[in-house]
Design brief:
This protein is an alpha/beta fold and about 500 residues long. Helix content is about 40%, strand content about 10%. It has one domain: Amidase signature (AS) domain (Amidase signature (AS) enzymes). The chain has an eight-stranded mixed beta sheet, with helices on both faces. It has a three-stranded mixed beta sheet with strand order 1-3-2. Strand 2, helix 5 (about 105-110) and strand 3 form a beta-alpha-beta unit. The two termini are about 30 Å apart.
């Protein structure tokens, strides 16, 4: 199968080709692996390839699911699976194996996908770039090899944007699906809190703020995969409001006239990069042309208290991982084990008492109630995904132990990405939609809805996709030539 044929349609289309006998699952896997061989040296996005596992799954007979025979990659953070060892983005966890499959992986596998490897992630899932030491170098953006693809699902974003796979698994605890979607020109949807299972390895991620998700080229691929994965696993601490009809069914429903609040500053009212502000304004004009009511709106909530609480909770998560590793090894961890930002996060967490941690969780819950009121005045909140275009490689490398400066400093993560975390904290659904390009780089816009209102949100995303299709936009083809000649590779 030629690369052009392999990229001619989305995952739903490829599954239809398999079902019709036009192509086999083995041929699609051949195409994906050929793409890895030629493109991945420039990107450093795909790791821990398990071709034998994938071939064995095909020979055993794939499940009769909606993506039967389609190549697929899982993020190297979470998605625990017996047949897929993981580094979890860290030298500390290199080649970890699991005794049972996670619930989310079992549900993804039941769709019939052919999983053959993992995609890169930053250590601990911390940060909007993917440059973990365990992978020997940064993961690069197919649109510009000097830019980041985002994080923490940066490898997934780069792999889909480069055409290695038509879609991939990711996860989102502070924008980690939406940021790569924005940076790589893809669709990314963060569902309502607890929409997907976390067990059995995790009760909840980051006090309930983290959730699995997917990087796709089409809205329907995301809708179909999310339908297949939705629902709490047995014993989950809580679950999301049940879907009324399902994500895919919602796409067929005509979108009602919606009240759309447009924010083209950050949520504190500070100016952002003109291209990002224009992306939001441009999307607002598009939505007006589709019959929606669009008006200026900035969500009133204590955003500064929220982000400080988020930073504290995430630091405690890093400390939990490192403390557990020290106990199992019987020795303190050194620089050869853990990167500086994770060490700094753990050190900061050790200054936080149990009462302070519970206070942080309480502030997150209070913020969720504030954000619930935001949607009394609008049905959808429209903003940029990012405050700047994709950052240069190295800007968010984990070289500093000053965790607070890394997150909250004047050149820190929150200044670069001030929009996404709000909806991890509130638990509300939010999506990154690729509607705008600036100087050849994708600039996504974020659409968010009230808690549990996933179906209305994804229906609106589909309406935008139909009005301004993005599927045919591809990164520069020089990427393949650079990879073939060895002119670009992990650095």
């Amino acid at each position: 199968m030629s690369w052009a044929d392999y990229e001619a349609g989305d995952a739903t289309w490829l599954a239809g080709q398999v079902a019709a006998g036009e192509v086999t699952a083995d041929e699609l896997l051949d195409a994906a692996l050929d793409r890895v061989a030629h493109v991945n040296p420039a990107l450093n996005a795909v790791v821990l390839v398990q071709e034998k596992v994938a071939r064995r799954a095909i020979r055993a007979g794939l499940p009769e699911g909606p993506f039967r025979g389609v190549p697929f990659l899982i993020k190297d953070l979470g998605a625990e699976a017996v047949d897929f060892p993981s580094h979890q983005g860290s030298r500390l966890s290199a080649n970890t194996r699991y005794p049972v499959d996670s619930a989310i992986f079992a549900r993804m596998r039941a769709t019939g996908v052919v999983t053959f490897g993992r995609t890169t992630s930053p250590e601990g899932g911390i940060g909007p770039a993917t440059e973990a030491a365990v992978y020997g170098g940064p993961t690069r953006n197919p649109w510009d090899l000097g830019r980041v693809p985002g994080g923490s699902s940066g490898g997934a974003g780069a792999a889909v944007a480069a055409g290695i796979v038509p879609f991939a698994h990711g996860s989102d605890g502070g924008g980690s699906v939406r940021i790569p979607a924005s940076n790589c020109g893809l669709f990314g949807f963060k569902a309502t809190r607890a929409r997907f299972p976390d067990g059995p390895y995790v009760g909840e991620g980051w006090a309930g703020m983290a959730i699995d998700g997917f990087l796709t080229r089409s809205v329907r691929d995301a809708a179909t995969m999310m339908d297949a994965c939705a629902g709490a696993d047995a014993g989950a601490p809580y679950w999301a409001p049940p879907l009324r009809e399902g994500y895919l069914a919602a796409l067929a429903r005509p979108s009602a006239r919606l009240r759309i609040g447009l924010c083209d500053t950050d949520f504190l009212g500070n100016p952002i990069h003109p291209a990002c502000a224009e992306a939001a304004s441009d999307a607002g004009r598009l939505l007006e042309s589709l019959g929606h009511d669009v008006f200026p709106y900035r969500p009133a909530a204590d955003h500064e208290a929220m982000i400080r609480a988020w930073v504290e909770i995430v630091a405690c998560g890093a400390a939990l991982t490192l403390d557990s590793a020290e106990r199992s090894r019987g020795r303190p961890l050194g620089p050869e084990d853990v990167e500086p930002v994770a060490r700094g996060a753990a050190a900061f967490a050790r200054s936080i008492s149990g009462a302070q941690y519970l206070s942080a969780v309480g502030r997150i819950h209070a913020y969720g109630r504030q954000m619930a009121q935001v949607f009394d005045a609008c049905d959808i909140l429209l903003s940029p995904v990012m405050a700047e275009p994709p950052a240069a490689i190295g800007r968010f490398a984990h070289r500093t132990e000053d965790y607070l400066a890394f997150r909250l400093g004047p050149e820190g993560v929150f200044r670069y990405s001030p929009f996404c975390t709000a909806f991890n904290a509130s638990g509300q659904p939010a999506a990154s939609v690729p509607t705008f390009w600036h100087d050849g780089l994708p600039i996504g816009v974020q659409l968010a809805a009230a808690f549990g209102d996933d179906e209305r949100l994804i229906a609106l995303c589909h309406q935008i996709e139909q009005a301004r299709p993005w599927f045919g936009r591809r990164p520069p083809h020089r990427l393949e030539m650079l990879a073939k000649t060895g002119a670009a590779g992990p650095a």
